[in-house]
Amino acid sequence: MSHESFLKNPASLFDIWGKVAIVTGSSGAFGALAAKILAGAGARLALVAGNATALADTASACEELGADVLALNRRPSDETACDAIVADTVARFGRIDILVVASGKNDVAKIGDMTPERFADVMDANVMQSWLMARAAGRHMLQQGEGGKIVLMSSARGLLGHPAGYTAYCASKSAVDGITKALGCEWGPTGITVNAIAPTVFRSPLTAWMFEDTEKAQEVRRGFLARVPKGRLGEPEDLAGPLLFLASRASDFYTGHILYADGGYTAG
Questions:
Q1: Residues 137/152/30/234 CA torsion (nearest 10 deg)
Q2: 46 within 8 A of 31, measured Cβ to Cβ
Protein backbone atom coordinates (compact mmCIF):
# COMPACT_ATOMS: atom_id res chain seq x y z
CA MET A 1 0.00 0.00 0.00
CA SER A 2 1.37 3.42 -0.97
CA HIS A 3 1.75 6.22 1.53
CA GLU A 4 -1.45 7.86 0.34
CA SER A 5 -3.62 5.03 -1.03
CA PHE A 6 -5.03 4.26 2.42
CA LEU A 7 -6.76 7.65 2.38
CA LYS A 8 -9.33 6.25 -0.03
CA ASN A 9 -10.47 3.89 2.73
CA PRO A 10 -8.84 4.66 6.11
CA ALA A 11 -11.09 2.13 7.86
CA SER A 12 -9.27 -0.64 5.96
CA LEU A 13 -6.35 -0.16 8.34
CA PHE A 14 -8.48 -1.81 11.04
CA ASP A 15 -9.57 -4.75 8.89
CA ILE A 16 -8.71 -8.15 10.43
CA TRP A 17 -11.14 -10.20 8.35
CA GLY A 18 -9.83 -13.77 7.98
CA LYS A 19 -6.90 -13.24 10.35
CA VAL A 20 -6.14 -16.08 12.79
CA ALA A 21 -6.16 -15.09 16.46
CA ILE A 22 -5.37 -17.02 19.62
CA VAL A 23 -7.15 -15.72 22.73
CA THR A 24 -6.10 -17.23 26.06
CA GLY A 25 -8.33 -16.80 29.09
CA SER A 26 -11.38 -16.94 26.83
CA SER A 27 -13.61 -17.87 29.75
CA GLY A 28 -12.72 -14.71 31.71
CA ALA A 29 -14.31 -11.27 31.53
CA PHE A 30 -11.78 -9.62 29.21
CA GLY A 31 -10.90 -12.79 27.30
CA ALA A 32 -14.51 -13.55 26.42
CA LEU A 33 -15.08 -9.95 25.40
CA ALA A 34 -11.90 -9.89 23.31
CA ALA A 35 -12.95 -13.11 21.58
CA LYS A 36 -16.36 -11.68 20.68
CA ILE A 37 -14.87 -8.41 19.42
CA LEU A 38 -12.44 -10.29 17.17
CA ALA A 39 -15.21 -12.64 16.04
CA GLY A 40 -17.43 -9.73 15.09
CA ALA A 41 -14.54 -8.27 13.10
CA GLY A 42 -14.21 -11.48 11.07
CA ALA A 43 -11.21 -13.20 12.64
CA ARG A 44 -10.80 -16.96 12.87
CA LEU A 45 -10.32 -17.92 16.49
CA ALA A 46 -8.46 -20.40 18.65
CA LEU A 47 -10.07 -19.92 22.06
CA VAL A 48 -8.14 -21.18 25.08
CA ALA A 49 -9.50 -21.61 28.61
CA GLY A 50 -9.38 -24.04 31.52
CA ASN A 51 -13.08 -23.69 32.36
CA ALA A 52 -14.75 -26.00 29.84
CA THR A 53 -18.31 -24.75 30.42
CA ALA A 54 -17.43 -21.07 30.12
CA LEU A 55 -15.20 -21.81 27.12
CA ALA A 56 -18.10 -23.52 25.35
CA ASP A 57 -20.30 -20.49 26.03
CA THR A 58 -17.71 -18.12 24.56
CA ALA A 59 -17.13 -20.36 21.56
CA SER A 60 -20.87 -20.57 20.90
CA ALA A 61 -21.25 -16.79 21.11
CA CYS A 62 -18.38 -16.31 18.66
CA GLU A 63 -19.83 -18.87 16.24
CA GLU A 64 -23.13 -17.01 16.35
CA LEU A 65 -21.18 -13.93 15.26
CA GLY A 66 -19.98 -15.91 12.23
CA ALA A 67 -16.49 -16.90 13.41
CA ASP A 68 -14.70 -20.15 12.63
CA VAL A 69 -13.75 -21.34 16.13
CA LEU A 70 -11.33 -23.88 17.58
CA ALA A 71 -11.98 -24.37 21.31
CA LEU A 72 -8.98 -25.59 23.32
CA ASN A 73 -9.82 -26.61 26.88
CA ARG A 74 -6.42 -26.08 28.47
CA ARG A 75 -4.37 -23.46 30.29
CA PRO A 76 -1.08 -21.88 29.12
CA SER A 77 0.50 -23.20 32.28
CA ASP A 78 3.89 -24.33 30.98
CA GLU A 79 6.09 -24.52 27.91
CA THR A 80 4.57 -27.78 26.68
CA ALA A 81 1.00 -26.48 26.95
CA CYS A 82 1.81 -23.22 25.15
CA ASP A 83 3.62 -25.00 22.34
CA ALA A 84 0.63 -27.35 21.97
CA ILE A 85 -1.79 -24.41 21.77
CA VAL A 86 0.26 -22.94 18.93
CA ALA A 87 0.61 -26.31 17.17
CA ASP A 88 -3.13 -27.03 17.36
CA THR A 89 -3.95 -23.57 16.03
CA VAL A 90 -1.59 -23.95 13.09
CA ALA A 91 -2.89 -27.45 12.38
CA ARG A 92 -6.44 -26.07 12.15
CA PHE A 93 -5.90 -22.70 10.47
CA GLY A 94 -2.44 -22.91 8.91
CA ARG A 95 -1.02 -19.79 10.54
CA ILE A 96 -1.14 -17.31 13.45
CA ASP A 97 -1.61 -13.57 12.95
CA ILE A 98 -2.75 -12.32 16.37
CA LEU A 99 -2.19 -13.39 19.96
CA VAL A 100 -4.25 -11.94 22.82
CA VAL A 101 -3.13 -13.09 26.26
CA ALA A 102 -6.09 -12.49 28.57
CA SER A 103 -5.46 -15.30 31.05
CA GLY A 104 -4.42 -14.35 34.56
CA LYS A 105 -5.60 -13.87 38.13
CA ASN A 106 -5.60 -11.69 41.22
CA ASP A 107 -5.27 -12.65 44.87
CA VAL A 108 -6.01 -9.80 47.26
CA ALA A 109 -4.33 -9.86 50.66
CA LYS A 110 -2.27 -7.53 52.82
CA ILE A 111 1.40 -8.43 52.58
CA GLY A 112 1.47 -9.75 56.14
CA ASP A 113 -1.21 -12.27 55.22
CA MET A 114 0.07 -13.11 51.73
CA THR A 115 2.14 -16.29 51.59
CA PRO A 116 5.08 -16.65 49.20
CA GLU A 117 3.17 -19.46 47.47
CA ARG A 118 0.15 -17.23 46.79
CA PHE A 119 2.40 -14.42 45.54
CA ALA A 120 4.22 -16.84 43.22
CA ASP A 121 0.91 -18.17 41.91
CA VAL A 122 -0.20 -14.68 40.80
CA MET A 123 3.19 -14.01 39.22
CA ASP A 124 3.02 -17.33 37.36
CA ALA A 125 -0.51 -16.74 36.04
CA ASN A 126 0.09 -13.14 34.97
CA VAL A 127 3.77 -12.99 34.10
CA MET A 128 5.15 -16.41 33.26
CA GLN A 129 2.12 -17.45 31.22
CA SER A 130 2.21 -14.16 29.26
CA TRP A 131 5.92 -14.70 28.58
CA LEU A 132 5.43 -18.33 27.57
CA MET A 133 2.54 -17.61 25.19
CA ALA A 134 4.32 -14.66 23.59
CA ARG A 135 7.38 -16.87 23.17
CA ALA A 136 5.46 -19.76 21.62
CA ALA A 137 3.33 -17.67 19.25
CA GLY A 138 6.18 -15.31 18.42
CA ARG A 139 8.42 -18.17 17.38
CA HIS A 140 5.83 -19.26 14.82
CA MET A 141 5.25 -15.69 13.63
CA LEU A 142 9.00 -15.38 13.08
CA GLN A 143 8.95 -18.57 11.01
CA GLN A 144 6.07 -17.22 8.94
CA GLY A 145 8.12 -14.10 8.26
CA GLU A 146 5.07 -11.86 7.83
CA GLY A 147 5.00 -10.08 11.17
CA GLY A 148 2.19 -10.42 13.68
CA LYS A 149 0.29 -8.78 16.52
CA ILE A 150 0.75 -9.68 20.18
CA VAL A 151 -1.51 -8.02 22.74
CA LEU A 152 -0.87 -8.63 26.43
CA MET A 153 -3.21 -7.79 29.29
CA SER A 154 -1.85 -5.26 31.74
CA SER A 155 -3.66 -2.94 34.14
CA ALA A 156 -3.53 0.59 35.48
CA ARG A 157 -2.16 -1.22 38.55
CA GLY A 158 1.03 -1.89 36.63
CA LEU A 159 1.72 1.82 36.99
CA LEU A 160 -0.12 2.71 40.19
CA GLY A 161 -0.21 1.05 43.58
CA HIS A 162 -3.33 0.13 45.53
CA PRO A 163 -3.85 0.22 49.31
CA ALA A 164 -6.06 -2.86 49.55
CA GLY A 165 -3.58 -5.72 49.35
CA TYR A 166 -2.45 -5.64 45.73
CA THR A 167 1.29 -6.30 46.10
CA ALA A 168 1.13 -9.44 43.98
CA TYR A 169 -1.17 -8.04 41.32
CA CYS A 170 0.64 -4.69 40.96
CA ALA A 171 4.01 -6.42 40.76
CA SER A 172 2.74 -8.86 38.15
CA LYS A 173 1.28 -6.17 35.90
CA SER A 174 4.44 -4.06 36.18
CA ALA A 175 6.30 -7.15 34.96
CA VAL A 176 3.87 -7.55 32.06
CA ASP A 177 4.63 -3.95 31.11
CA GLY A 178 8.34 -4.79 31.18
CA ILE A 179 7.84 -7.81 28.93
CA THR A 180 5.82 -5.66 26.53
CA LYS A 181 8.54 -3.04 26.26
CA ALA A 182 11.43 -5.50 26.03
CA LEU A 183 9.76 -7.66 23.37
CA GLY A 184 8.67 -4.56 21.50
CA CYS A 185 12.36 -3.68 21.21
CA GLU A 186 13.53 -7.24 20.51
CA TRP A 187 11.00 -7.99 17.79
CA GLY A 188 10.59 -4.47 16.40
CA PRO A 189 12.69 -5.16 13.27
CA THR A 190 10.73 -8.34 12.47
CA GLY A 191 7.29 -6.80 11.93
CA ILE A 192 5.89 -8.37 15.08
CA THR A 193 4.38 -5.72 17.33
CA VAL A 194 4.01 -6.31 21.07
CA ASN A 195 1.68 -4.01 23.00
CA ALA A 196 -0.51 -4.15 26.09
CA ILE A 197 -3.95 -2.88 27.06
CA ALA A 198 -4.08 -1.52 30.61
CA PRO A 199 -7.66 -0.93 31.75
CA THR A 200 -9.03 0.37 34.99
CA VAL A 201 -12.37 -0.87 36.40
CA PHE A 202 -14.67 -2.15 33.65
CA ARG A 203 -18.16 -3.56 33.85
CA SER A 204 -17.92 -7.35 34.07
CA PRO A 205 -19.41 -10.17 36.16
CA LEU A 206 -16.65 -9.56 38.73
CA THR A 207 -17.27 -5.81 39.01
CA ALA A 208 -21.05 -5.71 38.48
CA TRP A 209 -21.60 -4.83 42.15
CA MET A 210 -19.73 -1.53 41.65
CA PHE A 211 -22.34 -0.40 39.12
CA GLU A 212 -25.28 -1.03 41.46
CA ASP A 213 -27.20 1.62 43.41
CA THR A 214 -26.38 0.18 46.81
CA GLU A 215 -24.87 2.43 49.47
CA LYS A 216 -21.60 0.49 49.44
CA ALA A 217 -21.29 0.63 45.65
CA GLN A 218 -22.03 4.34 45.57
CA GLU A 219 -19.39 5.02 48.22
CA VAL A 220 -16.76 3.02 46.35
CA ARG A 221 -17.64 4.71 43.07
CA ARG A 222 -17.40 8.19 44.54
CA GLY A 223 -13.91 7.54 45.84
CA PHE A 224 -12.81 5.97 42.58
CA LEU A 225 -14.41 8.44 40.20
CA ALA A 226 -12.76 11.36 41.97
CA ARG A 227 -9.62 10.20 40.12
CA VAL A 228 -11.26 9.54 36.72
CA PRO A 229 -11.51 12.64 34.49
CA LYS A 230 -14.16 11.00 32.29
CA GLY A 231 -16.36 10.67 35.37
CA ARG A 232 -17.50 7.08 34.86
CA LEU A 233 -16.35 3.48 35.01
CA GLY A 234 -15.43 1.56 31.88
CA GLU A 235 -17.91 -0.23 29.64
CA PRO A 236 -17.11 -3.26 27.45
CA GLU A 237 -17.30 -1.21 24.26
CA ASP A 238 -14.49 1.00 25.59
CA LEU A 239 -12.11 -1.93 25.05
CA ALA A 240 -13.20 -2.69 21.47
CA GLY A 241 -11.37 0.22 19.86
CA PRO A 242 -8.03 -0.36 21.63
CA LEU A 243 -8.11 -4.08 20.87
CA LEU A 244 -8.92 -3.66 17.18
CA PHE A 245 -6.26 -0.96 16.90
CA LEU A 246 -3.54 -3.14 18.42
CA ALA A 247 -4.63 -6.25 16.46
CA SER A 248 -4.66 -4.55 13.05
CA ARG A 249 -2.38 -2.75 10.58
CA ALA A 250 -3.47 0.53 12.14
CA SER A 251 -0.89 -0.05 14.91
CA ASP A 252 2.02 -1.13 12.70
CA PHE A 253 4.18 1.75 14.00
CA TYR A 254 3.30 1.07 17.64
CA THR A 255 5.24 -1.47 19.67
CA GLY A 256 6.31 -1.76 23.28
CA HIS A 257 3.35 0.49 24.07
CA ILE A 258 1.05 0.34 27.12
CA LEU A 259 -2.38 1.64 26.08
CA TYR A 260 -4.25 2.85 29.15
CA ALA A 261 -7.99 2.31 28.72
CA ASP A 262 -8.80 4.16 31.93
CA GLY A 263 -10.80 7.31 31.30
CA GLY A 264 -7.75 9.37 32.21
CA TYR A 265 -7.21 7.66 35.59
CA THR A 266 -3.44 7.40 35.18
CA ALA A 267 -3.10 10.92 33.77
CA GLY A 268 -3.53 12.84 36.97
A1: -160
A2: no
| 35 close to 66: Cβ distance less than 8 angstroms | no
pLDDT of the chain along its 268 residues, tens only?
556 777 889 999 999 999 999 999 999 989 999 999 999 999 999 999 999 999 999 999 999 999 999 999 999 999 999 999 999 999 999 999 999 999 888 898 999 999 999 999 999 999 999 999 999 999 999 999 999 999 999 999 999 998 888 999 999 999 999 999 999 999 999 999 999 999 988 887 777 788 888 998 888 888 888 889 999 888 888 999 999 999 999 999 999 999 999 999 999 7
Distance CA 217, CA 207 (A): 10
Domain count for the chain, please give it. Answer: 1
Note whether 195 and 259 are within 8 A (CB). yes
- Residue 224, in any domain of the structure: no
CB 6 within 8 A of CB 12: yes
Residue 24 covered by a domain: yes
Q: Is 260 a catalytic residue?
A: no
**Nearest-angstrom CA–CA distance, 136 and 127:** 14
Of 166, 169, 260, 265, catalytic: 169
Distance, CA of 46 to CA of 58 (rounded, Å): 11
CATH of the domain at 60: 3.40.50.720
- Report yes or no on 210 lying in a domain: no
Q: How many CA atoms lie within 13 A of 42 on its CB side?
A: 8
CA distance 44 to 67: 6
List 48's β-bridge partners, or say none: 24, 72
Judge if pTM exceeds 0.90. yes
Which residue range(s) make up the domain with 140?
5-202+236-262
